[in-house]
Amino acid sequence: MALLPRRFLCFLLAHHFITATACQEADYGWMIRHYCLKQFQLSMEGIGQRLWCDWDETVGTYGELTNCTALIAERLDCYWPNRLVDEFFVAVHKQYFRNCAPSGRALHDPPNSVLCPFIDIQYGSEE
């Protein structure tokens, strides 16, 4: 059996469980935690905590999380973004990105090929 894209799987699961015609905040909160967040957690575990601050590694997973919350909001006839999704993303950021630089890039020294010439220049100029 071929694997379905996560977005499509999220859509199928959401469609299966949604019967309300007006936004039910309790249902929305439950669904984004149990469908969107669970998939995000699995993806982030696969990336590995060491790379969580590397935006190039996490942007796709983060985008899927965002799309999942928006899709469920649409299917539940909820506004998006809304208070629940704002609180949800604040919690996600506190758990996964609290130690990251504001730019989304991991802080680290540049490669030695870049760093060494600057070190040589600084120490060479003092002599």
TrEMBL record:
Main location: membrane
Protein origin, superkingdom: Eukaryota
GO biological-process terms attached to the record: calcium ion transport; cellular response to hormone stimulus; G protein-coupled receptor signaling pathway; intracellular protein transport; protein localization to plasma membrane; receptor internalization; regulation of G protein-coupled receptor signaling pathway
UniProt keyword annotation of rRNA processing present: no
Pfam families linked to this entry: RAMP
Keywords: Cell membrane, Disulfide bond, Membrane, Receptor, Signal, Transmembrane, Transmembrane helix, Transport
Gene3D superfamilies, per database record: Receptor activity modifying family
Compartment annotation: Cell membrane
Membrane-related topology note: Single-pass type I membrane protein
Signal peptide coordinates: 1-23
Any one GO molecular function term: coreceptor activity
GO CC field: cell surface; plasma membrane; receptor complex
Family according to the record: Belongs to the RAMP family.
Subunit: Heterodimer of CALCRL and RAMP1; the interaction induces allosteric modulation of CALCRL function and CGRP1/CALCA and CGRP2/CALCB ligand specificity. Heterodimer of CALCR and RAMP1; interaction forms the AMYR1 receptor complex for amylin/IAPP and CGRP1/CALCA ligands.
Task of the protein: Accessory protein that interacts with and modulates the function of G-protein coupled receptors including calcitonin gene-related peptide type 1 receptor (CALCRL) and calcitonin receptor (CALCR). Required for the transport of CALCRL to the plasma membrane. Together with CALCRL, form the receptor complex for the calcitonin gene-related peptides CGRP1/CALCA and CGRP2/CALCB. Together with CALCR, form the AMYR1 receptor complex for amylin/IAPP and CGRP1/CALCA.
Protein name per UniProt: Receptor activity-modifying protein 1
Natural source organism: Patagioenas fasciata monilis
